[in-house]
Amino acid sequence: MALIPITPPAGIVKNGTDYTNKGRWVDGNLVRFENGYLKPIGGWDLLRNTALTGKPIGMYAYNDNSGNPVLAVGTSEKVYVYYNETWYDITPTGFVYETATGETGFGAADFGEEDFGDARSTSTLSFPANSFSFDNWGEELVFCFAGDGKIYRWQPSAPSTIASAISNAPVGNIATVVSNERHLFALGSGGDPRKIAWSEREDNTNWTSLARNTAGDIQIPTGGQILYGLKYKSDIIVFTDIGINRVYYLGAPFTYGIAEAGTNCKAISVRSIVQAGDFIAWLGENSVFAYDGTVKEIPCEVHDYIYNEMSELYRKSCWGGHNQNFNEIWWGFPSGANQTTPNKYVIWNYRDNTWSIGELDRSCWVDQGAFDKPIAGDSSGFIYEHESGVLTGELDPFCQSGPLEIGQGDKLAQVNQIIPDEEANALPGVTISFTGKFTPLGTETDFGSFTFENDGYTDARFSARQVKMKVTRNSQQDFQLGQIRLDVKPRGKR
User: Fold this and answer.
1) CA 282 to chain centre
2) Residue 255 within any structural domain of the chain
3) Which CATH number belongs to the domain containing residue 363 in this structure?
4) Burial 401-411 (b: 16+ CB within 10 A, else e)
5) Contact 24, 402 (CB under 8 A)
6) pLDDT one-digit tens code per residue, 72-92
């Protein structure tokens, strides 16, 4: 008896063709790789039984001074807070929410491309999608929506009171962030796309720069305009439409300085920017980037899956989120020319450097921390707690391999048994199916599906030189798949 291990290395590969990715996983849905094992992702439960008004596009979570968690959700129409197990609509009076952008109309295509008077076809232009920035000033929530431009505050001491604009703060801003030194920052301050302003220390209503205070402003040293900013260690990292800049604390008399930190690394969507502890990661226009003091391009084994399938028109709706318990960064993106909201995702396990893919309707994400589990929203306005038990419903996670060689040269191999490792012994409800070919250009034959037996041995009878393997969960339970071996013996040429 010859036992041949056939389980591909951890991680899905989508660059190139299935044949060029022989011996690897090439497709999947709702699975992850953890410590080399194939597993389904965790399930999710509704955090709110009814949908919010508008599509959730931004989230932030923190604790108040008493340790109570606060969840802020910005949608395309409203701003909500979930606090003490109660939902509050805190949308400010006069708040300017996300306006719909059409795909067609005058100027949506190249001049002279279509006949005068004809209805315009869908263009390939990328229309802007505004984003929220949230932070907390002590226990107060502060936020800015780029389409509105004002900086607002909300107090948990009066949770039912709607958010109000911070007195004297600039307007026309792109984003806001609170520095470690307790200055409130306005990025794109006053409508100037290159200006960064900050308030007096400990006083977010004083923005007048005087010799006796620490309020001030600077300009980004590079060309382009500001898109977003966030805290990173002792700095504030400012993203522009060219690259990134680092704002650092100097002390009196200048308070802050700024320096270029990376070029040719523009984020495809500011919603895709993820802070993951020691580094920041984001989707670039054709690459994945990370910053840990320097900008690095991240090798991505699912690059083609992301950038070939992503909707060009609605790419600014891409989002990212950290899932720290699993050392993962999730990115969602819209797939399909007319898909307006993210419907597919990739997962990067940055510890093991593996990738997974799948389909899921999600529009934003916030990691666990203030709350016990990650929280995400979908395009219909529903909010979910993720990693909540086992996947249920009609969702069956699967993973599909590329071609796996089991024969030698022109010899066929006869498979007699399928033998999972000990990690798979207690896996009733997991099915492995095989398809195979006798020649590389030959027709594909379905060799059937096989369910793991309790004794760890599963009888199988088929012959091939090359097979593809698909692992599917066919019942609502967890599983962990290690090495799969086939009991084979050589056969002749036919």
Assistant:
1) 9
2) yes
3) 2.130.10.10
4) bbbbebbeeee
5) yes
6) 999 999 999 999 999 999 999
Gap between the Cα atoms of 271 and 120, Å rounded: 30
- Check whether residue 201 and residue 86 sit in a common domain: yes
Are 426 and 452 in contact by the 8 Å Cβ rule? The answer is: no
Residue 97, CB-side half-sphere exposure with 13 Å CA sphere: 16
Query: pTM surpassing 0.85?
Result: yes
Q: Identify whether residues 182 and 313 lie together within a single domain.
A: yes
pLDDT at position 377 is 98
Look-up of token digits 């107060």: 140
Give the C-alpha separation, 277 to 40, whole Å.
25
Three-state SS across 83-141? ECCEEEECCCCCCCCCCCCCCCCCCCCCCCCCCCCCCCCCCCCCCCCCCEEEEEECCEE
Taking alpha carbons only, the member of 247, 190, 195 closest to residue 224 is: 195
Summarised one tens digit per residue, pLDDT across range 151-189 is: 999 999 999 999 999 999 999 999 999 999 999 999 999
Q: Are residues 30 and 67 in the same domain?
A: no
Name the nearest CA neighbour of 289 among 306, 277, 273. Answer: 273
The verdict on 227 and 343 lying in the same domain is yes
CA distance 38 to 399: 8
Burial class of 130 by CB neighbour count within 10 A (0 to 12, 13 to 18, 19+): buried
Domain-ending residue, one of 337, 362, 386:
386
Q: CB within 8 A of 374, min separation 6: which ones?
A: 321, 323, 365, 366, 367, 368, 385, 386, 387
Q: Is the residue at 198 inside a domain?
A: yes
Number of domains in the chain: 2
Tokens representing 463? 């012959």
**Do 85 and 183 belong to one domain?**
yes
Which residue, 362, 338, 300, is CA-closest to 59? 362
Instruction: Give the model confidence (pLDDT) of 314-338 as tens digits.
Output: 999 999 999 999 999 999 999 988 8
Within a domain: residue 268? yes
Scanning the structure block, which residue is given the tokens 């315009």? 120
Place of tokens 């596009």: 57
**What values do phi and psi take at 272, rounded to 5?**
-85, -5
104 and 224 share one domain: yes
Most distant CA pair in the chain, distance: 91
Gap between the Cα atoms of 128 and 174, Å rounded: 13
Q: Are residues 232 and 257 in the same domain?
A: yes
Structure tokens, 114: 């279509």
Q: CB-based contacts of 113: which residues, under 8 Å, 6+ apart?
A: none
Residue of 447, 452, 443, 441 lying closest to 413 (CA atoms) = 447
Count of Cβ atoms closer than 10 Å to residue 399 Cβ: 26
CB-based contact 195:233 (threshold 8 Å): no
**Residue 379, token pair as written in the block:** 């395009």
Q: Which domain holds residue 226?
A: 44-386
Contact 239, 219 (CB under 8 A): no
CA atoms of 265 and 286, how far apart (whole Å): 9
